[in-house]
Amino acid sequence: MAKKIAFYTLGCKVNQADTASMEEIFRHAGYEVVGFNETADVYLINTCVVTNTGQRKSRQIINRAVRRHPLSLTVVTGCYPQTAAEEVKAINGVDIIIGNQERGRIVELVEQALEHKTDEILDNVQKMTVDTKFEEIGVGTETDKTRGFLKIQEGCNQYCTYCIIPYARGPLRSRSLENIQEEVAKLVAAGYKEVVLIGIHLGCYGKELGGKITIYDAVKAALKVPGLKRLRLGSLESVEVDTRILDLMEEDSRLCRHLHLPLQAGCDRVLAAMHRPYDTARYRVLLQDIRKRLPDIAITTDIIVGFPGETEEDFVQTMSFAQECGFAKMHIFPFSIRKGTPAEKMTNQVEESVKQERAARLGALDEKLLQQLLQQLVGTEQEVLFEQPVDENRLEGLISSYQRVIVPAPVELCGEIVKIKITGVQEDFLLGEMVK
To answer: Using CA atoms, how far apart are residues 152 and 205, in angstroms rounded to an integer?
Structure first.
């Protein structure tokens, strides 16, 4: 009888891609993947530490697995054991800890622990150095069959003062161009219509190789795969937007008209304190250049509110700059102190209530900008990738510029790309009808 394994993933799209890859490895080894609330031989939690909330929830899920299934094997992987191995090992009932490397050995480690289950924790957290290579484990092809996420880059060398990620993910490393093509082809063969290239610091793809290859080459490699219908880029730093990628967007409609360019603050003083590699003037010029070439592009972003020392005047500057930028979507994060980062020791920490109030004000602006954008799209024709049913008669999906649409359509069209006309707006969704 096949052994059963259950997964729980916290955090970012990269974590979700890592979990999908591990699921694939276990399936190939003969395991049955079941839901986290079902009975299993192994429970694997892929953790997050980017915020206090992520770390706290990681602990809660680990404790829940141990409490509910004391006889099963509990495996903890990802950023939490990578940054705080001793803390994770101190959680009673954890059997194996693995960081963000050597996950290709995950089945071997689990088999070893199942065979010799003891009170001693199997610690396989590896220290990552500049010599650490990208682990080219295969992409998962058994989850959502519409959009496949392919991790092509790992690690970050930026060391923004608020961020734990360089410590959790290690230095820059990149998937080979040949392997990118192989994995994209695997996703296409499995029926995926859209592939999203993701990474921890995606714009630095290839940088550790002396700049011989760049993110542009990775995009070109993916677009060479026959049968690929859509390609989307994950988050890119604004200073790393290669004009040749904009050329590709103009030339090839398969490359989605959407860029996610984290801003983090719209005030130069705060950006400098964050150790961000640009100022608002540079960011403004970039957006102007992009929109001149691609008027229909959607720009989404991340913004942190309440960074240490952020005054009301600083925040008002951020509000004003965000409005000027006309973002399609802002992901808003109240500043979260991360142990071991320079921002932890900064004076002038902002009160939690002030952070929440600022996040609410920026959220109201975000909603206003979204509604403006959605109204501008009414009357246009778009191609939608249907992802899931809303009810018996309607499907929901994404258009190239990353807005969600609800369209009357038969369920058989789920997973297909269909031409539609945008007819209206309902809350945060576009409404549409199929073009005959």
So the answer is: 8
